[in-house]
Every structure is written in C-alpha cells, then in structure tokens.
Amino acid sequence: MNGAAPRIDWIARRSGPLRGEIGVPGDKSVSHRAIMLAALADGTSRIDGFLEGEDTRATAAIFAAMGVRIGQPAPGTRLVHGVGIDGLAAPAGVFDCGNSGTGMRLLAGLLAGQDFDSTLTGDASLRQRPMQRVTGPLARMGARIEAQQGGLPPLRIRGHTGLNGIDYTPPVASAQVKSALLLAGLRAKGETCIREPRPTRDYTERMLAAFGWPIRFEPGVARLEGGHRLRATEVVVPADFSSAAFFIVAASLVPGSRLLLRGVGLNPRRTGLLDALRLMGADIRAHDRHESGGERVADLEVRHAPLRGIDVPEALVPDMIDEFPILFIAAAAAEGVTRIRGAAELRVKESDRIAMMARGLARLGIFVRELPDGADIHGGVLGGGEVDSAGDHRIAMSFAVAGALAGAPLRIGDCANVATSFPGFVALAQAAGIALASLSRPGA
Predict the structure, then answer these.
(1) Peptide bond into 154 cis (omega under 30)
(2) Would you put residue 65 in left (φ > 0), alpha (ψ -120 to 50) or beta?
(3) Which of 137, 155, 271, 321 is 20 to 30 Å from 262 by CA-CA measure?
C-alpha cells in the first residue's frame, strides 16, 4: 500500500423525513478572504465561525509561513496578528493550496505584487485546473507568473513591486478572477477597475470595505486604488450557503421533511439556487433576516414540496455555479424536464461536473442529455447502485442526497475530499435524518 491515504466511500439509503434544526459550517469563501485581509491589516483581527476545512486551513498555513501569527483560542476562531500591507516575509518553501482553486487564484493576485518569489501548488485535482483566466490579466498589470503547459499549476510568481492598475472586462464572469485582480490592485499604482459581463459574488469587495480599504462597487463594477492601509476588525463568518444547499434540497425532496438551518449567509450574488428552487415549487422561508460583517444572514425553514422541471434562467447561473451538482439531483427528482444553459464553467471545476453528474444520474436510471454548456435532465425515479464522485466534494455530497430518495442502497466512491469544504458532513447528515454511512479502506 506504500502508506497511501485510505479511500473513503459512502453508502446512502432511502431516508425518512428530515426534521429539527441544524447549523452548517462557516462560509468557505468568507473564511479564505478573512484570513488574507486580516494578515495584511494593521493590528489583530478576530475571526469567528471560521471554516475548519482542509482548504481554509491550507490558506492559514500559507500566511503563517510568511510570518503572520495566527492563534486558535477555540475551534472556529482565529486571532490574526496582521503584519500590514507591506509586511509579508519571503517563504522558505512552496505553498500548498490543497484542493482550493479559490485559494490559489486569490493568492496569485495577492502575491503578484510582493517583492519575493513564491510558488503555488496543490493536490492532483487542483494541478489539472487551468489558471490562464487569472494569470493573463495579472500579466497585463505587470505580474510575472510562470505556469506549466496549458496554464496549469504549479504557478511560479516572480517578486515584482511595479504593478499597475488596469481597467479590465473579463470575457467570462468570475468572482475569483475579479478578486485576484482587486487583491493585486492593493499594491498597484493607480486604479484597478473590473467591469463584469454579469455581476458575480462580491465577498472580496464587502470584506475590503469592512477592513477599511476605500473601494467603490455596485453589481458588475468594482474599483479601488493602491496605496492605502487595511485596519484590523472582527469578522463573524456566516454559515456557508453552498453547504446548506445539500440540506435545502434534501428537505425539499424527502416527503414529510421540515428542517431549519440556522444563520445561513444570503449574499445576493450567491443564492441563485434559492431562486431556481422556488421556481421549481420549493417551500423555503427566511426568518430573522439581519446583517453580520456586511453579509446578509437568515435562518432558512425548508418544507417538503413536489418540484417541477424548469428552464433555469441564465441570469441565475453566475449566482449558483457551485450549486449545480445538487440542482442536478433536484431536477432528477422533479416532474418534467429541467434545462440548464450558460454553465460551461462547470467543465473546469474540481471535475467536469456536467459530465460526472450526467454519468452518475444515468447509472441511477435518470436520462440526461449533456450539452457543452449545460444539460437537459429528465425527472424520474432514482434507483440505487454505485457512482463515482471523482474526488469532487460537491458531487459526493449531491449523490448522498440522491441516496436518501433512491429505491435501493447507493454507494458513492472517492469521498475523502469532502473534508476540504464540509468536515463533519456525514455526522450532520445523520443528525438531520439522512441514512448515510462512511466506509474506509486502504488506499491504492
């Protein structure tokens, strides 16, 4: 076995109603950004609700390697002793981003204007994800980044303090590209302005404002000037909407369910799935709406309701790109056909999510017509069997929800990477009423 990590598979079975109240882990996107900006701020920042996942811990470890002291007084809490906008120290080795495309892309922008060299790598999956959409516009700002053939990681970033702001419209709307350029713009001369073909998530903009950086933004446009300072602050990370999405869909689909999810982040650029599910007939109600750290938060009450197929509005696609695997499951259990278009980005996520979801659903008896930028999913009766997640955490969790409806047990292969975004998923699923078990066997 040569010490290989054990392979983790899951067995999901038909479940009874989901009931009670649950809290899902902190938002991964907010956790990444909170660590990054707190590290560059003047003073000590406190982060509560920090996601204790492998990806976010990898980001924290990278800043620790650059001389940032990060304390952990309790699980989910970090005290970050910022070193200031110019205070990062040269690393002794390569930075390992794990499975996090968000971490790698944002760090590429943040490190592009430092005066030392750095190298970003990741696991086997991340090393197959192209980075040209970030490295190309960063090069226009003056960054010097070397990638492997095809624009793949590892990325070698040459120390360079002469970045210049740019006015840039990315060909494809991407919050990660926008965020990388804004972070590079902190140390660039002049103004950096990003104009998006479609509005995307504005976590970076909101958090920069919370840390005191003068930034102007509205849906589709963000602009800032270099040369300012970040001020330490307190950040309360809301519950991750992408993590909540699996339970929202499960409670919608399993008859008799009534589930309350506490303190879920409802950033308007993140919650396209809620709009899509409501168009399909889902019964989802928001209670106790409030703001925390600039982010909208609410408790979500979900009750079972029969769903029907829809044509997913393309305007919702950028606001639900991470939730498409679980939308495939909702569509598979809905009456009629659900049509998805304009989602070509799914081809270059942790896996080719269109292909993997289509293949997995076909094994469960659901007909899916695959298209370059989407799919037609014909609702039907889900059977059991065996599917492969290809090491993609969102695919694994989506098929766990499918198993709660399946007519026979469903084995889901290669689920270890769920720990990158949702540690404790199996235990929380069991607590909510989903019949899910984890099986471990020696790695190959």
Answers:
(1) yes
(2) alpha
(3) 321
pLDDT band at 75 (very low <50, low <70, confident <90, very high): very high
- Give Cβ neighbours of residue 312 (< 8 Å, ≥ 6 apart): 276, 327, 338, 339, 340, 341
Distance CA 175, CA 17 (A): 36
How does pLDDT run across 102-150, given as a tens digit for each residue?
Answer: 999 999 999 999 999 999 999 988 999 999 999 999 999 999 999 999 9
| Confidence band of 161 (pLDDT split at 50, 70, 90) | confident
**Tens-place pLDDT, residues 390-427:** 889 999 999 999 999 999 999 999 999 898 779 899 99
The pLDDT tens digits of the residues spanning 339-369 come to 999 998 888 677 899 999 999 999 999 999 9
Structure-block tokens of residue 388: 């492969």
Domains and CATH numbers, the chain: 7-26+238-441 (3.65.10.10), 28-236 (3.65.10.10)
In this structure, the chain runs to a length of 444
**CA-CA distance, 373 to 375, in Å (whole number)?**
7
- DSSP letter (8 states) at residue 345: G
User: Buried b / exposed e across 165-175, counting CB within 10 Å, b at 16+?
Assistant: bbebebeebbb
Alpha-carbon 53 to chain mean position = 12
Provide CB contacts within 8 A for 270, sequence distance 6+. Answer: 29, 201, 241, 242, 319, 320
Estimate the crossing angle of helix 54-64 against helix 28-40, to 10 degrees. Answer: 10
The catalytic residue among 202, 322, 376, 388 is 322
79 bridge partner residues: 46, 71
Give the single-character DSSP code of 155: E
pLDDT tens for each residue of 262-301? 999 998 888 999 999 999 999 999 999 988 767 889 999 9
pTM metric for this prediction:
0.83
**Distance between CA 181 and CA 392 in Å, rounded?**
27
What mean pLDDT do residues 12-40 have?
Answer: 95
> Which segments of 364-409 does DSSP mark as H helices, in order?
393-403
